[in-house]
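Structure in, sequence out. Go:
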Protein backbone atom coordinates (compact mmCIF):
# COMPACT_ATOMS: atom_id res chain seq x y z
CA UNK A 1 0.00 0.00 0.00
CA UNK A 2 1.38 3.40 -1.01
CA UNK A 3 1.02 6.38 1.19
CA UNK A 4 0.95 9.71 -0.61
CA UNK A 5 3.34 12.32 0.68
CA UNK A 6 2.18 15.92 0.95
CA UNK A 7 3.99 18.21 -1.43
CA UNK A 8 3.36 21.92 -1.34
CA UNK A 9 5.10 24.49 -3.51
CA UNK A 10 4.82 28.20 -3.00
CA UNK A 11 5.10 30.32 -6.08
CA UNK A 12 3.72 33.39 -7.68
CA UNK A 13 2.35 33.61 -11.15
CA UNK A 14 1.84 36.43 -13.58
CA UNK A 15 -0.35 36.89 -16.57
CA UNK A 16 1.53 37.49 -19.77
CA UNK A 17 0.18 39.28 -22.82
CA UNK A 18 -0.77 35.91 -24.28
CA UNK A 19 -2.79 35.15 -21.17
CA UNK A 20 -0.65 32.24 -20.02
CA UNK A 21 0.53 31.91 -16.48
CA UNK A 22 4.21 31.43 -15.72
CA UNK A 23 6.18 30.67 -12.59
CA UNK A 24 7.98 33.78 -11.37
CA UNK A 25 9.76 32.78 -8.20
CA UNK A 26 10.10 29.85 -5.89
CA UNK A 27 10.41 29.60 -2.14
CA UNK A 28 12.10 26.60 -0.62
CA UNK A 29 9.94 24.45 1.60
CA UNK A 30 11.57 22.06 4.02
CA UNK A 31 11.28 18.37 3.24
CA UNK A 32 13.34 16.88 6.07
CA UNK A 33 12.58 13.37 4.93
CA UNK A 34 13.70 14.05 1.34
CA UNK A 35 16.53 16.61 1.44
CA UNK A 36 18.10 15.73 -1.92
CA UNK A 37 14.75 15.72 -3.72
CA UNK A 38 13.91 19.05 -2.10
CA UNK A 39 17.18 20.59 -3.33
CA UNK A 40 16.76 19.27 -6.87
CA UNK A 41 13.13 20.34 -7.00
CA UNK A 42 13.98 23.83 -5.76
CA UNK A 43 16.87 24.19 -8.22
CA UNK A 44 14.68 23.09 -11.13
CA UNK A 45 11.79 25.38 -10.24
CA UNK A 46 14.07 28.33 -9.55
CA UNK A 47 15.21 28.14 -13.16
CA UNK A 48 11.61 28.51 -14.38
CA UNK A 49 11.70 32.29 -14.09
CA UNK A 50 9.33 34.54 -16.03
CA UNK A 51 10.82 35.91 -19.20
CA UNK A 52 9.93 39.37 -17.87
CA UNK A 53 12.42 38.77 -15.03
CA UNK A 54 15.40 38.47 -17.39
CA UNK A 55 17.24 40.67 -19.86
CA UNK A 56 19.03 39.45 -22.96
CA UNK A 57 22.50 40.50 -24.04
CA UNK A 58 21.00 42.77 -26.71
CA UNK A 59 18.60 44.41 -24.22
CA UNK A 60 21.34 44.94 -21.65
CA UNK A 61 23.74 46.33 -24.26
CA UNK A 62 21.06 48.82 -25.37
CA UNK A 63 20.20 49.79 -21.78
CA UNK A 64 23.88 50.50 -21.07
CA UNK A 65 24.21 52.49 -24.29
CA UNK A 66 21.13 54.56 -23.40
CA UNK A 67 22.24 55.06 -19.79
CA UNK A 68 18.96 53.43 -18.79
CA UNK A 69 20.17 50.72 -16.42
CA UNK A 70 21.04 50.44 -12.77
CA UNK A 71 23.35 47.45 -13.05
CA UNK A 72 24.61 45.53 -10.02
CA UNK A 73 27.24 42.79 -10.02
CA UNK A 74 26.57 40.35 -7.16
CA UNK A 75 29.91 38.53 -7.42
CA UNK A 76 32.61 38.85 -4.78
CA UNK A 77 34.87 41.95 -4.90
CA UNK A 78 37.91 40.00 -6.16
CA UNK A 79 35.85 38.65 -9.08
CA UNK A 80 34.51 42.13 -9.82
CA UNK A 81 38.01 43.63 -9.80
CA UNK A 82 39.09 41.10 -12.44
CA UNK A 83 36.48 42.41 -14.88
CA UNK A 84 32.89 43.57 -14.98
CA UNK A 85 30.15 44.71 -17.31
CA UNK A 86 30.42 48.48 -17.95
CA UNK A 87 28.54 50.76 -15.50
CA UNK A 88 28.08 47.97 -12.92
CA UNK A 89 28.28 48.53 -9.19
CA UNK A 90 29.51 45.67 -7.02
CA UNK A 91 27.18 44.51 -4.24
CA UNK A 92 28.10 40.91 -3.32
CA UNK A 93 25.22 38.45 -2.98
CA UNK A 94 25.77 38.08 0.77
CA UNK A 95 25.08 41.79 1.27
CA UNK A 96 22.20 42.32 -1.21
CA UNK A 97 19.41 42.14 1.36
CA UNK A 98 21.17 44.51 3.74
CA UNK A 99 22.23 46.92 0.98
CA UNK A 100 18.80 47.27 -0.59
CA UNK A 101 17.23 47.73 2.85
CA UNK A 102 19.40 50.78 3.60
CA UNK A 103 18.01 54.30 3.65
CA UNK A 104 18.50 55.97 0.26
CA UNK A 105 21.19 58.41 1.43
CA UNK A 106 23.20 55.67 3.14
CA UNK A 107 22.96 53.39 0.07
CA UNK A 108 24.09 56.18 -2.24
CA UNK A 109 26.97 57.21 0.02
CA UNK A 110 28.11 53.61 0.48
CA UNK A 111 27.86 52.45 -3.13
CA UNK A 112 28.42 55.79 -4.93
CA UNK A 113 25.42 55.22 -7.19
CA UNK A 114 21.75 56.09 -7.25
CA UNK A 115 19.53 53.69 -5.33
CA UNK A 116 16.77 52.20 -7.49
CA UNK A 117 13.17 52.66 -6.41
CA UNK A 118 11.07 49.59 -5.72
CA UNK A 119 9.13 50.12 -8.97
CA UNK A 120 12.26 50.77 -11.05
CA UNK A 121 12.30 48.65 -14.21
CA UNK A 122 15.93 49.49 -14.92
CA UNK A 123 17.32 47.48 -11.98
CA UNK A 124 19.37 44.54 -13.30
CA UNK A 125 21.63 42.14 -11.40
CA UNK A 126 24.19 39.71 -12.78
CA UNK A 127 26.94 37.40 -11.55
CA UNK A 128 29.42 35.03 -13.17
CA UNK A 129 26.98 32.68 -14.87
CA UNK A 130 23.46 33.37 -13.58
CA UNK A 131 23.06 31.36 -10.37
CA UNK A 132 23.88 34.04 -7.81
CA UNK A 133 22.01 36.72 -9.75
CA UNK A 134 18.88 34.54 -9.67
CA UNK A 135 19.24 34.31 -5.89
CA UNK A 136 19.76 38.08 -5.73
CA UNK A 137 16.68 38.60 -7.91
CA UNK A 138 14.57 36.53 -5.51
CA UNK A 139 15.92 38.56 -2.57
CA UNK A 140 15.10 41.82 -4.36
CA UNK A 141 11.59 40.60 -5.24
CA UNK A 142 11.11 39.69 -1.58
CA UNK A 143 12.12 43.24 -0.61
CA UNK A 144 9.49 44.66 -2.95
CA UNK A 145 11.60 45.42 -6.05
CA UNK A 146 8.84 44.02 -8.22
CA UNK A 147 10.34 44.98 -11.59
CA UNK A 148 13.93 43.92 -10.86
CA UNK A 149 15.50 41.63 -13.47
CA UNK A 150 18.64 39.60 -13.92
CA UNK A 151 21.02 38.87 -16.75
CA UNK A 152 21.12 35.04 -16.73
CA UNK A 153 24.18 34.73 -19.00
CA UNK A 154 26.29 36.53 -16.41
CA UNK A 155 29.73 37.98 -16.91
CA UNK A 156 30.92 34.89 -18.80
CA UNK A 157 28.07 35.27 -21.29
CA UNK A 158 28.76 38.99 -21.63
CA UNK A 159 32.42 38.38 -22.43
CA UNK A 160 31.54 35.64 -24.94
CA UNK A 161 29.11 37.98 -26.72
CA UNK A 162 31.61 40.83 -26.70
CA UNK A 163 34.29 38.58 -28.18
CA UNK A 164 31.85 37.11 -30.69
CA UNK A 165 32.21 33.53 -29.49
Amino acid sequence: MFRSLPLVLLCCSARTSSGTSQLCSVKRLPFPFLPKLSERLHDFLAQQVCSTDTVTYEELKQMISDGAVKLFDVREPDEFSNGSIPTATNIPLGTVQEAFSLPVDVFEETYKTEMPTKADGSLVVYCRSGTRSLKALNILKGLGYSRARHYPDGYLGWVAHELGI
